[in-house]
Amino acid sequence: MKYIVILGDGMADYPVKELGGKTPLQTANKPNIDKLARLGETGLVKTVPDGMKPGSDVANLAVMGYDPLTCYTGRSPLEALSMGVNLADDDIAVRCNLVTLSDEENYEDKIMVDYSGGEISTEEAALLIKSVQEHFGDELHEFIAGVSYRHCMVRHHSSTGTVYTPPHDISDKPIKGHLPGGRYGEEVLDMMKRSYEFLKDHPVNVKRIKEGKRPANSIWLWGEGTRPALENFKERWGLNGAVISAVDLVKGIGKGAGMRIIEVSGATGNYDTNFSGKAAAAVEALDSGMDYVYIHMEAPDECGHQGDVKHKIYSIEQIDEKVVKYISEALEKKGYDYSLLIMPDHPTPLCLKTHVSDPVPFVLYRKGMKGSGVPYDEENAKMSGVYYKSGEELAKHFLQGE
């Protein structure tokens, strides 16, 4: 049996006024997903345990079949793992975003214009993070460049206890009241303030402004954690697993679980990503002996954070046409016995521009199922009456329930 998870990050939503009160899932043209929903099992699953924040870290761990309450040690350590950072027991990893802040004189009075620094390119970001390392790097602090706006700071010989706010939680809002506090809060805030002074005039940003792009004019630190310790995926489920994703967070989960990480050329983590390449890579992985492939696509989530309804719908339609259709047809042609699980990790409502912890709709289809169900969306999943109380419970049903 081959198992494939097709994860549209943040794909679920709330009704949107400009869509006539429908959600992007209800609006999008997705005949392939809807066909599988009608034939298979549709329902809701709670991926974010009570008391935990609805981050992609927690939710993707849950979808992979882990209990975040027992194995979660923070977001940034997972990303650091993907970047090849070997954390010591007393190291703290912290996510370092490159963001766009407004130009008020006092840092505290600025507004979070763009948590992604205008979707800065990886190449441009590397130059900015190099400058950040030159200014702040020392025996305690190390800054490591990642992909686009997503980077990492490691604080050696340290402890948790600093209070942070994810920048995507405060899009278009004043940052006052959301600045770091707690153990290293003053130190971290000082670095953020000082970073603005030299990043705003950095040649990369001067060029971006001339080109009509947003400058990545400040670092924003958040998401602290310690070295993760995940149970090996094969030992847990008896399956050879692989992960396909453009983002270090999900690749880090896979690496920590001992899974194969598959890089795809042109994978960007946004709606311009190489959807077809990810689908082809998944089938190739199954052909090469993988039993389980986790295909993560960040695009719907990024569009949700940006309030971009048009491209959120587009992303869903691309997942349907270029991923779901390709994979299901390829598996049938090759004669595999297979199970498909299609779902988001959490909702990212366009009206809020951030994550929520509501249960998410899923489609579970096994080869040969012949149901008479309904199309895939939030409301139909709710009306089905099928509910799993945790991602781990759904994973057990998916991987062991046939």
Structure description:
This protein is of the alpha/beta class and 402 residues long. It has an 8-stranded mixed beta sheet with strand order 11-10-12-1-13-14-2-15, with helices on both faces. It starts with a strand and ends with a helix. The model has no long low-confidence stretch (mean pLDDT 96). It has 15 helices and 15 strands. Helix content is 37%, strand content 19%. The longest helix has 26 residues, at 309-334. It has helices at residues 24-27, 31-39, 56-63, 68-71, 75-82, 122-136, 185-199, 203-210, 233-237, 248-256, 275-287, 299-306, 309-334, 378-383, 391-400, and strands at 2-8, 41-45, 92-101, 112-114, 141-147, 150-155, 162-163, 181-182, 218-225, 241-244, 260-262, 292-297, 338-343, 360-366, 387-388. Helix 3 (56-63) packs parallel to helix 15 (391-400) and helix 5 (75-82) packs across helix 10 (248-256). The protein has 2 domains: 2-73 and 230-400, Alkaline Phosphatase, subunit A, CATH 3.40.720.10; 92-225, no CATH class.
CATH architecture of the largest domain: 3-Layer(aba) Sandwich
Q: State the end-to-end CA separation.
A: 10 Å
- Count helical runs: 15
Q: Would you tell me the structural class of the helices and strands?
A: alpha/beta
The level of helicity is 25-40%
Write down the CATH topology of the largest domain.
Alkaline Phosphatase, subunit A
Radius of gyration: 21 Å
For the biggest β-sheet, the strand order reads 11-10-12-1-13-14-2-15
